[in-house]
Every structure is written in C-alpha cells, then in structure tokens.
C-alpha cells in the first residue's frame, strides 16, 4: 500500500469507526450481566434463579408450539425444499394461517404477541425441519419490517404496517455490493423531494427480497442546509414503481431462501414511511438487533439438538473394530462434546430470551455473545457429526436414501449453518462490537487520555477522573466469592464451576486493564487479543447459563419445555461436563492472550498481500478464471490485469 493509499485508508477507517460509534447505544439504563462480567463483577443475581415465563406467556407459547410442531411434522418436506431449492407457497401460506409471520407482533395489531422465549423455541422447531424456512421467518421478524416499526414507529405506522406484517413477508435491505460490514460506505440515496423521498441504489443479498411485500431499506439522506441527513430507515412497499429484483442468489446452503439483488431506480417513498428520525437508521438497525440477534442462536440450538440425536444413534449402531464406534475414545469425545454443547446452546438461548422478556436487564451483550458463540459452536458440532458419520456424513441425504439407507442430512447441516458466522454481524465484527462494549467503562473514564484529538487540558482532566475510578475498581479484582469454598453452595456439584467463572471474570478484567495500559489507543487494532477476550466472556456466559439452567431443570418444576422431565441429576451431570470442556477452552484462550503469533502474522500477511510469497501458489490452476473450457467469446466474470488463470 502506498503512503497516499494508507493515509486515505486511515481517513476511511476513522470515518467507519465514527459511523459505528454514532450508531451505538451509548447509554446503559438497565443492569447488564455481560457488561459486569467483563468488569470482573460476576453478577449471578442478575440471571439466577432462572427467570421464568408468566402463566399467560407460557399458555400462549405452548399452545402455539404444539400447533406449529404438528404443522412442521405433517406439512413440510425438508428433502423437497433442498432438492428444489424452493419453499413451496402452501408451506408459507400454512405458516401464515397459523400466525407464524406475526409471532412477535402484538395481538392488537393482528399478531400472536408471543414472548421472545417462545419465539425462539418456535424458530427451533422450524429450524430443525428447514433452516431455510427458519431464515425466512427470522429475516422477516427479527430484522425485517415488524421489529423496527414496533420499536420506533409512530402510532400511525404501527397501525398501518404491523397488521400487514402479520400476513405478509418482509425483508431488511442494508448490504450493497460495496457495503458489507462497513455501513459508512453506504451508497443508496434517499433525496427529499416534496412529500416524498426518492430512492436510488442497489441492495445485495436481501433474504426474502424476491418474495417480500414490504421491506425496510437503509439509504442515505444527503446533508443540506438545516438538514442533518445521514443513513435512514424507510419502509417501502415492493409494489412501488422503480423496484426491480435482478437475481435470485444461490448459496452453499439455505437452498430454499428467496435471496435477491434489489435495484431502486427513482423510487418515490412518502415521507410518512421514514422510521424514526433522518440519520437514525443504523441506530435503529442495531437496537433492533439487540433481541433480533437471538434468532440465529435458536437455529443453532436446534441444530445442536438434532446433531446430538444423530450422534447418539449412529455411534451406538455403527460397529467397527469389534465395538460400537461410540465406544472408541476418539468418537466418545465427539459425542460428549456435541451433547454438552447442545445443552449449553439451548441454555444460553432460553436464558437470554427470558431476560429479554423480563426487561429487567439490558441484554445487548448477552444476545451478541449468544449469536457469536452459538454460531461458532454449532458449526464445530456439525463438523464433528459429519466426522463420526464417516463417509455417510459426507454423502447427501438424497444419495443415502437412493441406495436404501436412512437419508440423514449431516452435510447439509454444516452447509446451512455456515452462514451464521457471517451474517447479522460476522464473527470478526461481533468480536469488535462486543469488545467495544467490554472496554466501555475504561473508555468512558479514560477515553480522552488515548484520544489523539483530545487537548492537553482534556487529557489532564481524564487522567484525574481515571485515577479515581481505578483506585476504587482495581482492589475489587483481587479477591472475591470464587476464592471462598462455600460460595454458590446451592448449586451442589456445579458450585465449583461458578466459583471458577467468578475468578475468571476478575482475571479477564485484569487482563483488559493491563492491555489497555500497554497498548492504550492501539488496543482497538489488537484484534487477536480482543477476539480471545470476547471468546472468554462468551464461554463464561455459557457456563453461567448452563449452571443456572441445570439447577432449574433438576428442580421440581421444569421451566420451559413441554413434555417429559429431565431425570434426576442428569441435567447437572451434563452441565458439569460442559463446564469442564469449556474451562479447557477458557484456559487456552487466556494463554493465547499473551502467547501467540499475532504480531508476526500481521507482518507476514502484509508481505503475502505484497506478493512476496506468490511462489507458494504455483503449480495449480485457478478455476475462477475462465479457461480454454469456456468459449473465447465469453469474457467470464473477471478479466482484470492482476488476475491470472495460471499462476505465473
Ligand atoms: C445468505 C445471505 C443472506 C443475507 N441476508 C441479508 C439480508 O437479509 N439483508 C442484508 O442487508 N444483508 C444480508 N446479507 C449480507 C450479510 O449481512 C453480509 O454478507 C455480512 O454483513 C458481511 O458482509 P460482506 O459479505 O460484504 O463481508 P465483508 O464486510 O467484505 O467482510 C469480509 C471479511 O472481512 C472481515 N472484516 C470486515 N471488516 C473487518 C474489520 N473491521 N475487522 C476485522 N475483520 C473484518 C469480515 O468478518 C469477513 O470475514 C446476507 C448474506 C448472505 C450470504
């Protein structure tokens, strides 16, 4: 990169950060378990005893779950959706008639008014049959039109659109060809003109975009005299002239989703369709995601449960080398990992969902941790499932069935799950987003010390403020309940794990404090450190959730699931196993905070990008570049100068 490019990049990066920062909800009005965890303050009281739905929420939720389960079991053919890459219209219509398009829409607006907990459990049921169908429901209800309108719409907007959303599919349009994780580059425009805005731009990868009736579009209102402008959110009726859907995109997985490229050409949108204020679009999107981020964990938790079932069945049934494969240690470890992880994913999902319903806590960190952690762990579990199924794990369900075996779609599971690590905030972006919240306390007291734009006076005032804060805070990190053998005694065999979480939380806070002092403003660029730090927080949250859940599950009244009780100490045993596995990961992550190859890798990557090691790529062909097997008249997708079919 040239000096000019670097400095231009620097300006761009600062702008990107500024835009992200402005979209952040800066205030914390309610207590946050996740935030305190990163500050070394393990507030078990915020999540224990496990919150429970009230009688009415439970009745409504269980009734709907029973109807939905019946529908999914009898009316949906998952193999057909996979084979034809399409969700049949009658399936969507059937779900609509059940009320599944309006699960979270209040009853007075024609929806079911389900709680977040039961919405999550409904997505689990649908996701277990067809992740593509769960993606349709979740894109519509978690990020599509209903949620931002419910949270930020005026009374008129709610009255107009929520009843429609209970019957029609909607979509959320933010991404553009040049705008993925970085909304600062957003190009779509909404120019005020009389009583309308005129929209122009192209939106990429819009889930449901091909079939949606209503969409929420992020577009930039230009700044002008007396007008703040900025990225804004609009509800747009897809029947408006000037909208074209140009492609139905196809992916590695989620074969049934109706995902398109949507072009807006001079589309007139009434001013009444602006949600919130001009310039508030990203904040609206992020706030919507506070609970919206819990949809993907539901789909991941569903996959974990199914993987646990198949892993158990196959590991017992398949005999090799004189024993069921589940009795060979290498396979047992996989079975144990999948079962324990499935329980933890469900625990995290339900706890976060019920916390959201109770509105006593700010759950933005918990929801983000749940999205990050379950999307990663579900993929690992699916990969282990494929491995223990051997060749059958790699074979498609259709092929297995065609030669007379049970059509187990293990390979499809991994393909369907893989996107969860990319959309609604990629793992890398979730690391940054959560890390930003985790270091918020430090930035709010000491931010000006490390701000290159702060004046000497501001820095001096910040130093004095920080001195006072750290003088009070640091002593709290030295010792705590985790050092007292009697702490958390009501958890029996799980108490030791909660003591570990308490100690690890303080150690994490000390590590963050040390890193902030060592790297100061440079900490935000230490993505390796930040990622591990957030992953530790995620494991600690998972351990807390599973302990609290196991305690509730092993008590007389089962909190959530309809059906049979968890036998005896079974839940405690599985939670104990999960915590032991998780602690091994946490210790590795702590170790990696200070012992890693991050700095070397950054330097090496720079050289790789400069082409210093291009020789390592020699000796193969590049199938993405058109070769002689394509007619010479077809220029192919790319003829750029720097792309070569054969490696030089
Ligand atoms: C199946 C599917 C459905 C989708 N549905 C929708 C939808 O309904 N609506 C919608 O608006 N969008 C949707 N998307 C878009 C999706 O949200 C984006 O793919 C996602 O935000 C990532 O953007 P990108 O693909 O452009 O990757 P990029 O932003 O180009 O990122 C590429 C890689 O770089 C990493 N990266 C980027 N910036 C940083 C950074 N600052 N630090 C560290 N790492 C970084 C990313 O994590 C990623 O690994 C969908 C995409 C797919 C594939």
The hetero compounds bound to this protein are:
flavin-adenine dinucleotide
Number of helices: 23
Share of residues in strands: 5-15%
Range of helix content: 40-55%
Largest sheet: 4 strands, mixed
* Gyration radius over CA: 26 Å
Structural category is alpha+beta
Number of domains: 5
Strand order of the largest sheet: 1-4-5-8
Note the overall shape.
Answer: globular
| Poorly predicted ranges | 1-11, 636-648
Euclidean distance between termini CA atoms: 22 Å
Average pLDDT taken over every residue: 91
SSE topology sketch:
Blueprint (H helix, E strand, L loop, with lengths): L2 H21 L9 H6 L16 H21 L2 H7 L4 H10 L17 H14 L1 H13 L2 H7 L2 H11 L4 E4 L15 E5 L2 E12 L6 E8 L8 E8 L5 E6 L10 E12 L3 E2 L5 H12 L2 H23 L1 E2 L2 E2 L4 H30 L5 H26 L1 H4 L2 H6 L7 H8 L9 H12 L1 H11 L5 H18 L21 H25 L7 H27 L16 H25 L3 H12 L39
The structure holds flavin-adenine dinucleotide.
Describe the protein:
With 648 residues, the protein is α+β, with helices and mostly antiparallel strands. The protein folds into five domains: 31-47 and 448-601, no CATH class; 55-165, Butyryl-Coa Dehydrogenase, subunit A, domain 1 (Orthogonal Bundle); 170-289, Beta Barrel (Butyryl-CoA Dehydrogenase, subunit A, domain 2); 291-435, Butyryl-CoA Dehydrogenase, subunit A, domain 3; 613-648, no CATH class. Helices cover 54% and strands 9% of the residues. The protein has helices spanning 3-23, 33-38, 55-75, 78-84, 89-98, 116-129, 131-143, 146-152, 155-165, 281-292, 295-317, 329-358, 364-389, 391-394, 397-402, 410-417, 427-438, 440-450, 456-473, 495-519, 527-553, 570-594, 598-609; strands spanning 170-173, 189-193, 196-207, 214-221, 230-237, 243-248, 259-270, 274-275, 319-320, 323-324. The chain has a four-stranded mixed β-sheet with strand order 1-4-5-8. A four-stranded antiparallel β-sheet has the order 2-3-7-6, covered by helices on one side. A hairpin with an 8-residue loop joins strand 4 and strand 5 (230-237). Helix 6 packs antiparallel against helix 12 and helix 21 (527-553) packs antiparallel against helix 22. The two termini are 22 Å apart. Flavin-adenine dinucleotide is lined by residues 139, 171-175, 180-181, 205-207, 251, 254, 259, 419, 422-423, 426, 428-429, 432, 527.
């Amino acid at each position: 990169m040239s000096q000019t490019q670097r400095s231009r990049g620097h300006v761009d990066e600062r702008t990107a950060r500024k835009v992200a920062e402005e979209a952040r909800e800066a205030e914390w009005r309610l207590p946050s378990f996740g935030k305190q965890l990163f500050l070394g303050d393990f507030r078990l009281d915020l999540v224990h005893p496990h919150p429970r739905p009230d009688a009415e929420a439970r009745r409504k939720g269980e009734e709907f779950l029973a109807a939905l389960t019946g529908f999914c079991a009898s009316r949906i053919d998952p193999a057909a959706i996979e084979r034809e890459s399409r969700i049949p219209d009658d399936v969507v219509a059937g779900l609509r008639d059940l009320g599944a398009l309006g699960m979270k829409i209040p009853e007075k607006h024609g929806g079911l008014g389900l709680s977040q907990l039961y919405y999550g459990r409904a997505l689990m049921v649908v996701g277990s049959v067809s992740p593509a169908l769960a993606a349709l429901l979740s894109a519509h209800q978690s990020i599509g039109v209903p949620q931002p309108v419910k949270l930020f719409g005026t009374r008129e907007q709610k009255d107009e659109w929520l009843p429609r959303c209970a019957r029609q599919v909607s979509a959320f349009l933010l991404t553009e060809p040049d705008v993925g994780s970085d909304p600062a580059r957003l190009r779509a425009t909404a120019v005020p003109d009389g009583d309308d805005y005129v929209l122009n731009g192209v939106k990429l990868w819009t889930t449901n975009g091909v079939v949606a009736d209503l969409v929420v579009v992020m577009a930039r209102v230009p700044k002008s005299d007396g007008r703040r402008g900025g990225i804004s959110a609009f509800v747009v009726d897809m029947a408006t002239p000037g909208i074209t859907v140009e492609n139905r995109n196809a992916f590695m997985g989620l074969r049934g989703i109706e995902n398109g490229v949507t072009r807006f050409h001079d589309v007139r949108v009434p001013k009444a369709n602006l949600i919130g204020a001009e310039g508030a679009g990203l904040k609206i999107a992020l706030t919507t995601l506070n609970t919206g981020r819990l949809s993907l964990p539901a789909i991941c938790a569903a996959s974990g449960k199914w993987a646990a079932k198949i892993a158990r069945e196959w590991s017992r049934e398949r005999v090799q080398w004189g024993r069921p494969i589940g009795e060979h240690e290498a396979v047992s470890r996989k079975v144990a990992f999948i079962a324990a992880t499935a329980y933890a994913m469900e625990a995290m999902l339900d706890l976060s969902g019920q916390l959201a319903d109770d509105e006593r806590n700010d759950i933005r960190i918990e929801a983000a941790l749940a999205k990050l952690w379950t999307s990663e762990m579900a993929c690992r579990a699916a990969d282990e499932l494929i491995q223990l199924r051997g060749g059958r794990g790699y074979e498609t369900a259709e092929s297995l069935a065609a030669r007379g075996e049970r059509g187990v779609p293990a390979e499809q599971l991994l393909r369907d799950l893989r996107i969860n690590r990319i959309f609604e905030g990629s793992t890398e972006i979730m690391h940054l987003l959560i890390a930003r919240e985790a270091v918020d306390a430090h930035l709010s007291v000491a931010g000006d010390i490390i701000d290159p734009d702060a004046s000497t006076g501001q820095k001096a005032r910040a130093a004095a403020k920080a001195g006072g804060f750290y003088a009070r805070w640091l002593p709290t990190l030295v010792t705590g309940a985790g050092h007292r053998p009697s702490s958390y005694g009501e958890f029996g065999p799980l108490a030791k794990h909660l003591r570990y979480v308490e100690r690890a939380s303080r150690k994490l806070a000390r590590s963050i404090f040390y890193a902030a002092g060592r790297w100061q403003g440079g900490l935000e660029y230490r993505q390796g450190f930040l990622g591990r730090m957030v992953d530790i927080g995620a494991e600690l949250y998972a351990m807390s959730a599973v302990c609290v859940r196991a305690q509730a599950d092993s008590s007389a009244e089962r909190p959530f699931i309809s059906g049979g009780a968890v036998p005896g100490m079974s839940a405690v045993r599985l939670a104990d196993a999960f915590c032991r596995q998780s602690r091994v990961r946490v210790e590795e992550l702590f170790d990696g905070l200070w012992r890693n190859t991050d700095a070397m890798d950054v330097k090496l990557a720079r050289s790789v990008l400069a082409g210093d090691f291009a020789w390592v790529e020699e000796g193969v062909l590049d199938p993405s570049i058109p070769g002689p097997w394509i007619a010479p008249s077809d220029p192919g997708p790319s003829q750029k100068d720097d792309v070569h079919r054969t490696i030089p």
